[in-house]
Automatic annotation (TrEMBL):
Residues 45-184, 217-362 form the SIS domain. The lineage of its organism: Bacteria, Bacillati, Actinomycetota, Actinomycetes, Micrococcales. Its EC number is 2.6.1.16. Homodimer. It comes from the Bacteria. The chain holds residues 246 to 617 of 617 of the full protein. The active site is at 367 (for fru-6p isomerization activity). This is Glutamine--fructose-6-phosphate aminotransferase [isomerizing].
Length: 372
C-alpha cells in the first residue's frame, strides 16, 4: 500500500502533491498554436454557446465551491449572469432554465446522485447541460449534452483536493472559451489569465515546497475546538472549503465567512485565543479589497483572535496584525484560489494526523454519495 501511495503516508497527501500535474493535465491540449482555446470536445455548437444568456452551476460539497469561485471569473470575462446552486436544492427552487441556459454540473466522481438528478431536471427544462467531471464514462457525463473532463487522475482519498483544483481550472477554461466566442472586450483580460493559468502548476509546486510552517501550526492546534475562516471575492469560497476540510478530516467545528460579513454577526464569536484563518486577496485585487481585508484582520486581532494569514509574497501590510503568515507566490486575483486552497488542505490533513485520525477515510463520509 505504501507503494500505491508513492511514499506518502496517505492518498490525500499524495493527491495534494499531484496538484501541479492535475492542473497542467487539465490545461493540456486545449489551446492551439496561436494561444486560442479549442474545446471541440464540448460538442455543443458555437452558435448555441453564443446564445447562452444564463449559466447555472450545480454541484455538491467541494465541487460546489469550485462553482462559486468560477462565478466571479466567468461573470467578469463573459458578462453572462452565473449562479451556483447546490444540486440537491436546485430542483426544489423551481429553477429558471431554458434552451439558452447552460447548466454546468461539477462532479469529480460523476456519480453523485443529487448532482445527477439536478442535471436530469435541467435537461427536462430544455437547458444545455455540460458536465465537468474527472471520471471517464461516468453517469453524469453520459446524461449530459457535453462534457469537459478534468484530468486530475484517480482521486482515492474521500476529501477532494486535486479534483477541486482541476475543477476550478476546467471552469476557467469554459469561461475563457465563452469569452473568446463572444469576443467581448473582456476577452483581452481573459487572454492574460490564460497565459498565467499555464504558469500556475509551477506556482502550486512552490506552495507545496513551503508547507513546513502550516504543518507545525496544525500540530500545535491539535486540541482546538473551533476554527474560523475568512475570505473575500474568490477567497470566500476558499474560506468555505478550508472550513469544510477541517470538519471532514479533523472533526473540528469550523465555519467560513465572507470577510465583509464579519461585522454583521460573526465578529461576536471572536474571543481571546480564537484561531481565525484569513485568505487575503492580493494587493492588486480591484476595488481596494486587500485593504478592507487587512482592516478585518486588525479588528479581530484587537479582540484577541489568533490570526493565521494566507497572503502573497511581498504583502507586508498584513504583518503587524498576523500571528502567523503563510505565504503564497504572487499571481493575478482570479488565480489565487489555486494557490490559497493548498495550505488549507494541508492544515486539515495535518490536524487530523495530529489527532490520530484516518485521513483517507473520515468517519461517516463516502467518496461518492450515490443516494439522494
Ligand atoms: C462527497 C465527498 C466530497 C465531495 C462531494 C461531491 O460528499 O465526500 O469530498 O466534494 O461528495 O463529490 P463529486 O464526486 O460529485 O465531486
Amino acid at each position: 500500500a505504501a507503494a500505491e501511495k508513492g511514499g506518502h503516508e496517505w492518498f490525500m497527501e499524495k493527491e495534494i502533491h499531484e496538484q501541479p500535474q492535475a492542473v497542467a493535465d487539465t490545461l493540456l491540449g486545449r489551446t492551439d498554436e496561436t494561444g486560442a482555446l479549442v474545446l471541440d470536445e464540448l460538442r455543443i455548437s458555437e452558435e448555441q454557446l453564443r446564445n447562452v444568456d444564463r449559466i447555472t452551476f450545480v454541484a455538491c460539497g467541494t465541487a460546489a465551491y469550485a462553482g462559486m469561485v468560477a462565478k466571479y471569473a466567468i461573470e467578469r470575462w463573459t458578462r453572462i449572469p452565473v449562479e451556483v446552486a447546490l444540486a440537491h436544492e436546485f430542483r426544489y427552487c423551481d429553477p429558471i432554465a431554458d434552451e439558452r441556459t447552460l447548466v454546468v454540473s461539477i462532479s469529480q466522481s460523476g456519480e453523485t446522485m443529487d448532482t445527477l438528478m439536478a442535471v436530469k431536471h435541467a435537461h427536462d427544462l430544455g437547458a444545455l447541460t455540460v458536465s465537468i467531471c474527472n471520471t471517464h464514462g461516468a453517469t453524469i457525463p453520459r446524461e449530459s449534452d457535453a462534457v469537459l473532463y478534468t484530468h486530475a487522475g484517480p482521486e482515492i482519498a474521500v476529501a477532494s483536493t486535486k479534483g477541486f483544483l482541476a475543477q476550478i481550472t476546467a471552469c476557467y477554461l469554459l469561461g475563457l472559451y465563452l469569452a473568446q466566442l463572444r469576443g467581448e472586450s473582456y476577452a483581452d483580460d481573459a487572454r492574460v489569465v490564460l497565459t498565467e493559468l499555464h504558469e500556475t502548476p509551477d506556482r502550486i509546486a512552490e506552495v507545496l515546497d513551503r508547507l513546513d510552517r502550516v504543518r507545525e501550526i496544525a500540530h500545535f492546534m491539535a486540541d482546538t475546538r473551533s476554527v474560523l475562516f475568512l475570505g473575500r471575492h474568490v477567497g470566500y469560497p476558499i474560506a468555505l472549503e478550508g472550513a469544510l476540510k477541517l470538519k471532514e478530516l479533523a472533526y473540528i467545528h469550523a465555519e467560513g465567512f465572507a470577510a465583509g460579513e464579519l461585522k454583521h454577526g460573526p465578529i461576536a464569536l471572536i474571543e481571546p485565543g480564537q484561531p481565525v484563518f484569513i485568505v487575503v486577496p492580493g494587493p492588486d485585487t480591484p476595488h481596494g479589497l486587500h485593504g478592507k481585508v487587512v482592516s478585518n484582520i486588525q479588528e479581530i486581532r484587537a479582540r484577541g483572535a489568533r490570526t493565521i494569514v494566507i497572503a502573497q509574497d511581498g504583502d507586508t501590510a498584513v504583518e503587524p496584525f498576523a500571528d502567523e503568515v503563510i505565504r503564497v507566490p504572487r499571481t493575478s486575483p482570479m488565480l489565487q484560489p489555486l494557490l490559497t486552497a493548498v495550505p488549507l488542505q494541508v492544515f486539515a490533513m495535518e490536524l487530523a494526523n495530529a489527532k490520530g485520525l484516518d485521513v483517507d477515510q473520515p468517519r461517516n463520509l463516502a467518496k461518492s454519495v450515490t443516494v439522494e
